[in-house]
Amino acid sequence: MAETLTYHYNYPSLLTKSQNEAGLLLSNYNEIQKKESSCYFWGKLKDPYLVARALINLSNVVQSSFNLSPFQLALLKDPIVTAGSEKIRFEGFSHCAGVYARVDILEAGLDGEFPEPGTTNVDFNQGMISSLSTIQRNENVMLSVGPKELSLIQDGHVTKERKVPLPVKWIKALTSVQMFLSDSEQQHSFNKIQAIQLFKTIPTGKPKADYYLISRAGKPAFSPVKSASGIYVGGIHRLRLLEPLLPFIDQLKVFAHPGMQSTTWQLYFGGLRFSISLSRDTWRGFSGEGAALDALLEDIPESWLTSAEKYCQANQQFNATLFAINEGLDRTLVDQLTARLSAIGLLGFDLDENAFFYRRLPFKTERILSLNPRLKDAEKLLAEGKVNILQKASDKIEASVKGTGVDHVVVIEGGRERCTCTWFSRNQGQRGSCKHILAVKKKITEL
Question: CA 84 → CA 47, 145, 288, 316, 328, distances in Å?
């Protein structure tokens, strides 16, 4: 499978700057919507200095890696930007896809219009970063998202951006991270002083031991000693990505997945939010987590998926509970729709609003299998007749799945799953079901 998809932009984007005013025009590409969009947003940034700091920090996340080689790290990728629902969101992953970062410019941070919602890809090369670094608090910065290249014009000098490929594993990672976010709950809230003091307890270097966010004598701290109420933070040194922004924040909120598969750290600056989500461990990227695989097993009519996508596009968000009530649909079916929309990159999740937001990415529904190789392998096992159900009862299912030179045994009992394959032995179900369990589950639904 190709690691990237290359797009050709009709126009370059522009970041123009004069003595006290700058304008940003972002080019867009969509392989489904052939008609060229006009303008997604045009207006002023109310606090351009903080927006610039946040975007620089987002770029630092995108250019970072915690388990890749220097050669892989040199293949830099760039963020996604979505304009709509009175917000502009910049998103990106570290190269290892183990850190997800997002900048949300909220309605309170913008003074402009949203003629049409849309999503584009943004190139943050060194020229762009240098330009953002020069923005001062008293500048009047205009932001526009539309069909042009991204360049910086300052004192007659023009810095043009390059068109970039979008990594396939980003779409795979978006699927898992949104599912983890939708299950996460707020655990802590800290003011600026508390947040700065907390981050001083991050150990130096790259500690190999597990760390936990705990409360000691009423004060938050990171500790290698596990406590009953402690929040697991894998690869704690990755939190240093937030340190440049801490002096500017009003508040820090910490959200945790109930199964401790991820933690999310959200910074607030008035009309601006910056957040990062960390995978459970440094070596684990969100692209390999398989959080939505079970929900993708059952086939649903393409017309339902199309209707749900149109609903999202019209409302620019997707509240699964309200959608189920309004449409009179079973919640399980809506969860399957949500998983499919997430699997092709159309949904992100907003923790504060507790709802999915809509993003338009250039991916088609038929790519769900190619983006989820375990699901594709499960389909192949079924097509080749390698799944044999040995026992099927209300509380227990046992099956045999032919492998290469060995038959794997799958047991599903009381909500617990087991398989004799290497993948399951290594991950114990924490990174989604193996292909053998997926194949058995799908065969059961077809019986």
Answer: 19, 11, 29, 7, 27
* In a shared domain, residues 43 and 175: no
Say yes or no: 351 and 429 in one domain.
no
Q: What is the pTM of this model?
A: 0.81
Quick one: DSSP state of residue 272? E
Asked, for residue 220, whether it belongs to a domain, the answer is yes
> Dihedrals φ, ψ of 27, to 5°?
-70, 155
Strands 14-17 and 151-154: parallel
Give residue-wise pLDDT tens across range 230-275: 999 989 999 999 999 999 999 999 999 998 889 999 999 989 999 9
Burial of 332: CB neighbours in 10 Å, binned 0-12, 13-18, 19+ = exposed
Structural domains in the chain (count): 4
Q: Are residues 145 and 19 in the same domain?
A: yes
pLDDT in tens, 65-93: 765 554 444 444 567 888 888 999 999 88
Is the backbone of residue 299 left (phi > 0), alpha (psi -120 to 50) or beta? beta
Provide the sign of the torsion angle of the four alpha carbons 347, 349, 355, 357, taken in this order: negative
